Amino acid sequence: MYYLGGMEPSELLALRTGTVEGWKYTHSVVPLGSLAVPSGRLEASDPFVNLGEAFVLPIPPGTYPAFVTLADVSEEQDGSHIRETYLSLVIADGEVARVEFANPELADPDEAPGSEEDFYGVPVDAGTVGFADAEAVQRCMPEGNWYEDLFDNDTDGSWFNLMDSPDHLRAGSANIPFPLATGGESVVLTHSGWGDGVYPVLTAFDADGKLLSVHIDLFVNEEDGDEPEEAEPS
Q1: What gap in Å lies between CA 172 and CA 117, rounded to an integer?
Q2: Cα 216 to Cα 131: distance, rounded to the nearest angstrom
Q3: Sign of the CA dihedral with 85 first, then 90, 94, and 98 last
Q4: Euclidean distance between CA atoms 70 and 169, whole angstroms
Q5: I need a labelling partner for 63 at 20 to 30 A (CA). Which of 71, 74, 181, 187 fits?
Q6: CA 196 to chain centre
Q7: Quick check: 190 and 84 in contact, CB under 8 A?
Q8: 131-145, pLDDT tens digit by residue?
Q9: What is the β-pairing status of strands 186-191 and 128-133?
Q10: Can you state the percent helix, strand and coil of the chain, rounding each to 5?
């Protein structure tokens, strides 16, 4: 984790394209359509594992553009190895003055992170992260076995196939309407960088304290000079 002890706004690489001084990788940004959050309760989840039971953050009600920031992690920086590094929702325009770890609503104060290095996170077990309106999940998802009926049902409209289709948005990301949606309610999702883990939700504010954006940081970026960590046995 590259921002132990606090994060400067310049270290938030979400939504930034090209190369950034002090950082290794070249970035690009892909729009993922809009996400309606009329309830003002934004859920960040692994949609294939904990949809409807995950991290919920209060935000202003509205409909917002979503983006995935990609990092070229190849040695040659030739685009041959792309990884997702942030899933983002843009709430308002402005200059970022402060970046914070987000706390979920109804977080127990007695179980709050004990230091600046700790955070509430989004647990990922299916290599995917997503944003959705928390109340829309409850209203617009059907009863039954979601995995067999929706996620992996051997049709072109299955969530796995839509996420991996280059003809939808891009291979690795999707914006999928909920089956019972009546007002465009959807889930926006993307592969989670290097895969499973626990990832923080970051909130960015302007100098007046207005919320500008929300991000799931997938821990892909590395500072120049960082040595790659040795892989642990699976």
Answers
A1: 30
A2: 9
A3: negative
A4: 14
A5: 71
A6: 13
A7: yes
A8: 999 999 999 999 999
A9: antiparallel
A10: 10, 35, 55
DSSP strand pairing (211-217 vs 186-191)? unpaired
108-115: which pairs have CB atoms within 8 A and are 24 or more residues apart?
Answer: none
pLDDT of res. 233: 40
Q: Where are the beta strands (DSSP E) in 73-196?
A: 82-90, 98-101, 121-124, 128-133, 173-177, 186-191
Q: Look at the block and give the residue holding tokens 């109804």.
A: 106
- Which stretches of the chain are assigned E, i.e. beta strand? 26-37, 41-45, 55-58, 62-72, 82-90, 98-101, 121-124, 128-133, 173-177, 186-191, 197-205, 211-217
The Cα–Cα gap between 196 and 218 comes to: 10
Edge-to-edge strands of the sheet including 128-133?
55-58, 41-45, 128-133, 186-191, 173-177
The size of the chain, in residues, is 234
